Amino acid sequence: MISFILNGDRKEVDANPDMPLLWLLRDELQMTGTKFGCGVASCGACTVHIDGVATRSCQTFVGDLDGAEVTTIEGVETPAAKAIQEAWVELQVPQCGYCQSGQIMSASALLTETPNPTDDDIDAAMDGNLCRCASYARIRSAIHRASEIMEA
Amino acid sequence: MLHNIQKRMPQVQATRRTFLKLSAGAMGGLLIGAAFPHRSVAQSAGAGDVLITPFVHVTPDNRVLVLSKHLDKGQGTATGLATLVADEMDAAAEQVDADFAPSNPELYANLAFGIQGTGGSTAMPNSWDQYRQAGATARAMLIGAAASEWGVSTDEISISKGVVLGAGNSATFGELATLASAQEPPAEVTLKTPEQWTFIGKSFPRVELPKKTQGSVGLFGIDKQTEDSLIAVTTRPPRFGATLASFDAAEALDMDGVQAVFEIPQGVAVVANNTWVAMQARDMLTLEWAEGSGEMRGTDALLEEFRALLDQPGNPTPSQGNAAAKLAEAEQVIEAEYVFPYLAHAPMEPLDMTVLYDGQAAEFWGGSQLQTVDHGTAASVLGLEMGQIAITTKWGGGSFGRRATGDSHLVAEAAMIGKAWLEAGNEARPIKLVYSREDDIKGGYYRPLTLHRVRAGLDADGNISGWEHRIVSQSIVSGTAFEQYLVKDGVDDTTVEGIHPSPYAIPDMALDVHHPQVGVPVLWWRSVGHTHTAYVMETMMDELATAAGRDPVEFRLAYLDGDPRTAGVLKLATDKAGATGADGTYRGIAVHKSFNSYVAEVADVRMRDDGTVKVEKVTCAVDCGVAINPDNIEAQVQGGLGYGLSAVLREEITMTDGEVDQFNYPDYTPLRISDMPEVEVHIVASTEAPTGIGEPGTPPIGPAVANAVFAATGQRIRELPMSKHGLA
Q: Chain B residues with CB inside 8 Å of A40's CB?
């Protein structure tokens, strides 16, 4: 039995410790907000926060979760995440939207750590999140916009 | 993609015959004799919804739900269609929502195709009148309902922001919906004039975006799951077309959570309780492939064969003037050979399709892009009538052409799995077929490997003197239902579009084509043939201008007298970009017409110390007729050029002895944010009917960047991607 915090609630799960967190969330807990994109930590679609750090859930294993605090797109409520979500709608960032759960989790972790990021900070934090629609120009603008929203 | 069908298919109304011809081809000669399903169109919407027209529902909580006949895979079509309806209805913006129409080609055909389907940047053009008429019809029926309810003349009734007003009364759409649905639809409606538009041209916010910032719960096909649903994965052959000799599933079947393993025509399917188990179990299968089966040629062998074809005459397209004679008397001749690799679409949502089949009926859920072909294929595989099958279209997590397959291979595979599951004596359950990223990258349906050879001459005055052009590329539509519409005299239109025809009036030009047979499945990839034809035309025009000592814009304009819209965007983009880019940048330009839209792009690039290219800024001008949603046009041009830039910089699929060398995003490497340029989009004000915008942003970026690389380095890049030359 693995015990961890998921979106603020304690979870006790009886699952294969070798299973990636991604599949525990999606297939066992029916939480589909976290997306499968590549399975090899190369696209960022599956990004969640573990103890506040943006982490690829496809390469995080259930057996390593004991005591961890996991936050997914369904439960993220930090001021940074709220500002990011607001800016994402204001600047109409998503196109197909499939990567955007991961983009938002990465961007909100960035803003929590670095409330006023430079373009280089954005490149460094967001380069692991692929967007095949190439909504990148708006992602960049919206991170800056979210930073303003947080300051206001 | 598919755009050229409209040239040869009935423009106005889909006919049964059209569809039957198409589906007959799609299913290898099987004819569907059954009538189309007359499913309740309300079925796709919530309980209690009132249907006012097949395109417009009003929900009990007073929302206007617009049914999109087109798949929205990111290009904004659902919002675009909702905008047209909402404008004519005078709805309030906040009450407008969209969902997908069920599969029913009698009601929901793409008027450019004659079947239900999305592609070729046709969604808005073919729906422009239809959805405005639907909105105006709904409006008239609501007014009629109010008139009878209040006992007043319809002349006394108006609608403002979703509220029906007249003779001191007021009512919401929701309150009048039931009465309105009983009204006789008007025989004719008068559409608004442009001055009356409230939403068209004003960047209506996308209806689904709040959901897409909160996990997109329930939107995508891959998220379709219930407590009792199962996951299926299927083995893929190591080489295209390789046949399975034998397999051993003992170890896989021993795994906890594995429900079944069975052979289907596509491979060996594993059905399990969850995706991780299914994928692991698939890895445990022992598979023996028939020796020597399938496509054995690697990229090198194909290139050698394709190059040999460049030396032989191909199937000609209608020529202009006498290219050979003019080349013989030319002052100088430039000869260039181009190589474009196979490309994967690699949409972020891997392919998936959920099936529930109980022997009597079947339902499918997924990002269906050619619903009618998928529907017919499902009927054929399952031996059911069309009316026994429902297809629920889900939002697509990208497609770029990948979900529009003429052979409906995904639905066929899901149907086979549903059938095998039931025939093994199991109880019907929803089974979701999922592709891994490796299945996707290695799975074919690529933009074809394509070679071009051009010989173009210049006379003493620096004018073009003869242009001979040859292309070697697999046909995309050969062997599919679309062949009859898109292949003429042995030439696949999707191979030559952008050159034949070209907006440039080149007086002496000859183009011929070879379509070699290769066992690699190929498909339309965002902007299709324009992905390579624009590159060749626009780098060649640049090269000729340079050789002639002429300004590249002036040189192009000299051949664009007959095409003021192409000339217009070229001038607008170069004006807006200013005389030069930022210090230390080099400039390249390109202009291209595709899907009846016109886009020019000016790329300013910087060379990094390591010799790689960074595209700093792209200034674009776009003419796509009436700009229904300027903000979305900007987004599609940003994204479209980003998609094109991604391919030009680093994407290629190669094969060694028939086996695909790449496996996943670590080695099939799309553009990341650090490579994305700043993009400025200028939209030409126009009263022309709207044309597409999903694809036209893609073609010009490659040649614009290549021309900038030439300006920076003196190097002409004729083999893509640019990473082959140390540029990325």
A: 437, 664-666
Distance CA B567, CA B554 (A): 10
Give yes or no for a contact between A24 and A86, defined as CB atoms under 8 angstroms apart: no
Q: Which of A47, A35, A127, A31 is nearest to A81 (CA)?
A: A47
CA distances from B13 to B9, B10, B94, B453 (A): 10, 7, 33, 40
Residues B158/B150, Cβ–Cβ less than 8 Å: no
pLDDT digits (tens, 9 = 90+) for A116-150: 999 999 999 999 999 999 999 999 999 999 999 99
Tell me, yes or no, if A74 comes closer than 8 A to chain B by beta carbon.
yes
> Is the bond into A17 cis (omega within 30 degrees of 0)?
no
Query: What gap in Å lies between CA A35 and CA A56, rounded to an integer?
Result: 10
pLDDT of residue B46: 60
State the complex-level ipTM: 0.98
Tokens of B275: 């995706």
Count of alpha carbons within 13 angstroms of residue A128, beta-carbon side: 19
Q: How many residues in total does chain A contain?
A: 152
Residues of chain B contacting residue A20, judged by C-beta atoms under 8 Å apart: 276
* A and B: number of Cβ contacts within 8 A: 185
* Contact between B613 and B705 (Cβ < 8 Å): yes
Helix H or strand E encompassing B8: helix B5-8
Residues 26-45 on A with a CB inside 8 Å of B are 26-28, 30, 32-40, 42-43, 45
pLDDT at B649 exceeding the cut of 90 = yes
The pair of three-digit structure tokens given for residue B72, joined into one six-digit string: 């929205």
Taking residues A85-113, what's their average pLDDT?
A: 98
Out of A33, A36, A122, name the one closest to residue B215 (CB).
Answer: A33
Q: Cβ neighbours of residue B12 under 8 Å, at least 6 residues apart?
A: B111
Identity at A59, one-letter amino acid code? Q
Angle between helices B701-713 and B630-650 (to 10 degrees): 50
- Distances from the Cα of B467 to the Cα of B321, B453, B512, B614, angstroms: 10, 10, 12, 33
Note the pLDDT tens digit of each residue in B92-108.
Answer: 999 999 999 999 999 99
User: In the prediction, which pLDDT does B51 show?
Assistant: 82
Contacts of A43 in chain B (CB under 8 A): 348, 437, 665
Give the Cα separation of B296 and B302 in Å (integer): 10
How far is B522 from B218, CA to CA, in rounded Å? 31
DSSP helix/strand/coil, B582? coil
- Tell me which residue has tokens 């094969």: B655
Put simply, the chain A residues between 83 and 122 with a CB less than 8 A from any chain B CB are: 84-85, 88-89, 92-101, 104, 122
pLDDT digits (tens, 9 = 90+) for B133-176: 999 999 999 999 999 999 999 999 999 999 999 999 999 999 99
Residue length of chain B: 728
Mutate to test the interface with B, among A34, A49, A84, A96 (most CBs of B within 10 A): A96
Min Cα distance B220 → chain A (Å) is 8
Q: Rounded to an integer, what distance in angstroms lies between the CA atom of residue B511 and that of residue B533? A: 12
Rounded distance between C-alpha atoms, residue B662 and residue B441, angstroms = 7
Backbone angles phi, psi at B432, to 5 degrees: -100, 115
